Inverse folding.
């Protein structure tokens, strides 16, 4: 049996990754594929927490560009992450994976309020915990949520699944054929070079708490398991390299 490199992980999924090629809304096929990959990891006796973005439904930045109050736009984005979290929960439960949705904004009819010790207890019981509604505060991204929750639950790594790239590049590979893919980076390099891995708040939080990050493609089935096993896929970002 394969031995996992990490015991407790935070899986960060963008909302766009759940939309598939449509780029908007939810793709049942993609959600099912992600759920199946998460189940593979759970079967390795790994504790899994998930942070899902909401960009496939609403982006706070777009709202603010429309003239909407930034805080209001961000709260709408948090609600979008709850919708994605419930969709992922449903898909996981259908294939026999016990889950809990833990929301930073209280909505007890559909999710538990986020309580750190309770979330850790769920993980210890091998339940997949899906962190919804971001940090519960405007002006913070779901990347920052992933970094914050990883620090709080003492996760070994953040696995960042992307839908359009298979790692971190020196430039956008879709626009620049000369873009170079990195295999390893430090957080200082990510910040100083302005690489669009995660926002600077999230990068700094990961760096300060020595939380490694693996950026890889979520589109290839089995990649989450490969990342958990420590296979060389995507790009690894650490405090020091």
């Amino acid at each position: 049996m394969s031995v996992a490199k990490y015991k407790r992980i935070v899986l960060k999924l963008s909302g766009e990754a759940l939309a598939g090629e449509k780029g908007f809304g939810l793709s049942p096929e993609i959600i099912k594929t992600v759920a199946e990959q998460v189940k593979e990891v759970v079967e390795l006796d790994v504790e899994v927490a998930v942070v899902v973005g909401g960009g496939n439904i609403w982006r706070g930045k777009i709202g603010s560009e429309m003239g909407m109050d930034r805080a209001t736009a961000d709260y709408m984005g948090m609600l979008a992450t709850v919708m994605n979290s419930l969709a992922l929960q449903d898909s996981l439960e259908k294939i026999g994976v016990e889950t809990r949705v833990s929301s930073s904004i209280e909505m007890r009819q559909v999710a538990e309020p986020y309580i750190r010790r309770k979330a850790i207890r769920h993980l210890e019981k091998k339940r997949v915990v899906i962190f919804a509604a971001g940090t519960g505060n405007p002006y913070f991204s779901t990347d920052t949520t992933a970094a914050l929750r990883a620090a709080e639950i003492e996760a070994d790594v953040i696995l960042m699944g992307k839908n359009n790239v298979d790692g971190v590049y020196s430039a956008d590979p879709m626009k620049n054929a000369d873009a170079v893919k990195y295999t390893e980076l430090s957080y200082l390099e990510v910040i100083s070079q302005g690489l669009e891995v995660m926002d600077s708040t999230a990068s700094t939080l990961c760096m300060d708490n020595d939380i490694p990050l693996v950026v890889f493609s979520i589109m290839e089935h089995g990649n989450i398991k490969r990342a958990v096993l420590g296979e060389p896929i995507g790009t690894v970002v650490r405090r020091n390299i």
